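User: I'm putting together a teaching handout on how sequence relates to shape, and I'd like one worked example. Could you take NAD(P)/FAD-dependent oxidoreductase from Clostridium aestuarii, show the sequence you're using, and then write out its predicted structure as tokens right after it?

Assistant: Happy to. First the sequence, then the structure tokens directly below it.
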Amino acid sequence: MFDITIIGAGVTGCAIARELSKYKLKICVLEKEIDVACGTSKANSGIVHAGEDPIPGTLKAKLNVRANKMYDKLKEELDFPFKRNESLVLCFDENDIDKLEALRQRGIKNGIPDTMEVLNREEALKLEPNLADGVVAVLRLPTGGIVCPYEFTIALAENAYMNGVEFKFETEVQEIEKLEDEYRLKTNKGTIQTKLVINAAGVHADEFNNMVSNKKIKIIPRKGEYCLFDKSAGNLISRTLFQLPTKMGKGVLVTPTVDGNLLIGPSSVDIDNKENVNTTREGIDSILEKSKKSVKGVPMRQVITSFTGLRAHEVDSDFIIGEVEDANNFINAAGIESPGLTSAPAIGEMVADIVVEKLSPEKNEKFNPIRKDIPKFREMNNEERRKLIQENADYGKIVCRCETVTEGEILNAIRRPLGARTLDGVKRRTRAGMGRCQSGFCSNRIVELLARELNIPRTEVTKYGRKSNVLTGKIKEDIK
């Protein structure tokens, strides 16, 4: 019997788990995939929004601004990539400049520090010389930032795990039954009994809510396609560029990533299939064309990959957070679309407050907020590298040339708490395979290391779990 069972190991579920690990509770996180951050948390813009966009008074506005202020401390505690690089909202029509001021005033109302300012074109060009010719003014947002979304999620999960939270992967919830004083969750791996359920299941959150409540909700998967550029394009801009929303929509953003790449996107299309993450020629062409409105000189030939994420859009367009009216001890964290990544730490706090009020748990005096990331060889100077290699010779063997990732880092990623079990798991923890060649050079060696460390045949190593096996068999038998 668990005190709390969280459905979903994305950034929302992991932020809630970490916050609740501050109390003496028996907590379990259920995830249908093989790892954390396998859904929307791995495929988004990686933006820490300032908070000027949400409508004042909404949960999106309140939690966005609250969480934005939490990232500096969280970075110190959890050691994940985060940078306050500022954001600019671009205006393309002199008649719309007043809309920038209206956004600034909305930001102040939402609680953003009054450091925002509207700049004319000349002032904006001093910040970003490559702005497109059509940009006439910008709103500068100093508190905007960028984060690695999957490394942030992994950091939250590892810290929650180290503080006692149990994670069950490849465990899909199929039915939820409300009993008198508990819930019974039927999964593909057996039944789980729990006093309280927290629904953080992303695009599937409506399905679980609707199993227990007569107050139905509907989540619409909103498809967003992105293009990622080589690091040689990463210095085109230094700030995140948003387009001022018009009657034609919000446009696309152009941003550097915390790892030095350039990212453009997303598209925005409502679909029916909650598993449809394929990219399309139409979607990619659209975002590339729209990006020219923001910045000139986009090096189209330096795109190294494209990807799609699904946002969990709820029809009422605000987060749904709280205990379900007709299902005692069932708490929703649903409809968590943008600015959901930004808001995750504050969502964790809000849900924890609800749980504390319900269960009155004791504080966990042994809670340790500190988690250290894998040492990054590529970020070290030569003296630091020599010292690390002396301590562990595996750090002297480069496996991924594009990203300068060593065998020591890959082994660390596999062996650490909630360690990697797939190629994508290694990639998200170390960046091995994320460079220009997109794992063309390093994948064979990573497969060998995974097979050895997990004590499985190489043919059982997968890219992302399920049936994504990398190898199917031998071409010929070993020569003796």
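A couple of points you could highlight for students: The mean pLDDT is 96. The chain has 13 helices and 22 strands.
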